[in-house]
């Protein structure tokens, strides 16, 4: 292979959830050793029932870990993500060809 | 991910798959709370997608091959030697360089998660994060190496290095035969990502 010839992320959401955790670390709200310990626990638990392939399932574990930490530390409430998801889905249903974004969700009512 | 344009299309058919929607929702919640800015996320992604990658590690290896003083400094304290070349950042704070020799081949894994020297190698490939590699690299490294196309002479020992949040590793592969007289830039071209993880060997110069 040519060094660096593969994309760093296979899907845009992989990159996005990766960046969300790194941003928490950059803002000094998440220490990296704590993060890796938590991620390792999630991966171990996920890997009990299936063999993780290091793609979607890996970043899903990343997402689960980040959500849990944010909820535990009180920065978000568990229901908030579900509500935001429903808003996005609703906005998307009203204008399925528009990109999903904050403005859309806000203007959809 | 996309619904078919030909099939019956409901309003929800183009709704992104669940993880994508969840990530978007999480980002929106954090943005609304002022905890994160989309531009900051863009900058992080750009950094790891476009500016950091195995080219950095390849330059370190090429310099170690060319400059005995740098090689000694790298093996003594890789974090310092690498920082001096400007490769600093997250997951790069504590790095050890392990050198392949005629007697020993080194291979790197993270059995617990996916610790990896980001400033030198970028984001790890999918297989590095897979359960299979994480489990088997320790248990049967020779077999794993063979599957990567690396067959080692019988007498050569294999050392497996398990990365952690506290310590990450880069393999300094053996300088390939036929590369005498090449400058650092040309040498760096021979250094593959996998050769710095230990699952590959550097390319040989084309004659």
3D structure, described in words:
The complex is a heterodimer of chains A (109) and B (207). With 109 residues, chain A is mainly α. Chain A is built from five helices and no strands. Chain A has helices spanning 12-26, 32-49, 56-72, 78-94, 102-107. In chain A, helix 1 runs parallel beside helix 3 and helix 2 (32-49) packs across helix 3. The longest helix of chain A has 18 residues, at 32-49. Residues 102-109 of chain A have low confidence and may be disordered. In chain B, strands 1-4 form a two-stranded parallel sheet. A two-stranded parallel sheet of chain B has the order 2-3. Chain B has 207 residues and is mostly helical. Chain B has two domains: 16-50, no CATH class; 52-197, Nitrile Hydratase, Chain A (Alpha-Beta Complex). In chain B, helix 3 crosses helix 4, helix 3 (54-66) packs across helix 10 and helix 8 packs across helix 9. The longest helix of chain B is centred in the first third of the chain and has 15 residues, at 18-32. Chain B is 45% helix and 11% strand. At the A-B interface, helix 1, helix 2, helix 3 and helix 4 of A face helix 1, helix 2, helix 3, helix 7 and helix 8 of B.
